[in-house]
Amino acid sequence: MRETLTTDRLVLRQPKLSDAPIMAKLLNEKEIVRMTASLPYPFLSLSAEFWVLRQQADWQRGISHDYIITDDGTNMIGVMGLFENKVGDKEIGYWIGKPYWGKGYITEAAKVLIAETFKAFPLPYVDAGYYADNPASGRVLEKLGFVSKNETSNLYSIGRGARAKGIELRLHRKTAMNMHEQGKEQKQVNS
To answer: By CB distance 3.0 to 4.6 Å, which of 26, 80, 88, 175 could disulfide with 94?
Structure first.
């Protein structure tokens, strides 16, 4: 996986310790952390520093590839990552700060991460999931071509302090590649 990914509006880059204060500020929203499995609430600066150090180590070990989503290379707006789930499959996960909701940033960041994932790994598919009470995330994943695995999960969320129903999805390589090509063609038509 490349260390930096770019789109028309975004730069996705590896986490740095200097990201910790803004990360802590963005994640000090219960509405955000309760939609993640592994983030606590409240999310303190120390939590952010630990998260960054862990992600840097996991990147070097090939366990996960998390990117800070920025709108200019410096202004952090969220996180998009690829990790190995409990059954050994690759899965994407993400969150975005509340001031940036509804602007299409997650869809845009996910498109470039998915394209990079299928370039870097000979995977037949990538998984994703969302909590049933977060339909906006489900709509994002459907736009990206993810389809239901006809499975639900009862996944623990540290931010909720409880288990909650999750919806499990999958994106097949062929679907992703077709959507990527269609996106490139559409971009050329609009140029």
So the answer is: 80
- Judge contact between 125 and 68, C-beta under 8 A: no
Per-residue pLDDT of the chain (191 residues; tens, 9 = 90+): 999 999 999 999 999 999 999 999 999 999 999 999 999 999 999 999 999 999 999 999 999 999 999 998 789 999 999 999 989 999 999 999 999 999 999 999 999 999 999 999 999 999 999 999 999 999 999 999 999 999 889 999 999 999 999 999 999 999 999 887 776 655 655 55
Domains recognised in the chain with CATH numbers: 4-190 (3.40.630.30)
The answer to whether the beta carbons of residues 40 and 159 sit under 8 Å apart is yes
pTM higher than 0.90 for the full model? yes
SS3 of the chain: CCCEEECCCCEEECCCHHHHHHHHHHCCCHHHHCCCCCCCCCCCHHHHHHHHHHHHHHHHHCCEEEEEEECCCCCEEEEEEEEECCCCCEEEEEEECHHHCCCCHHHHHHHHHHHHHHHHCCCCEEEEEEECCCHHHHHHHHHCCCEEEEEEEEEEECCCCEEEEEEEEEEEHHHHHHHHHHHHHHHHHHC
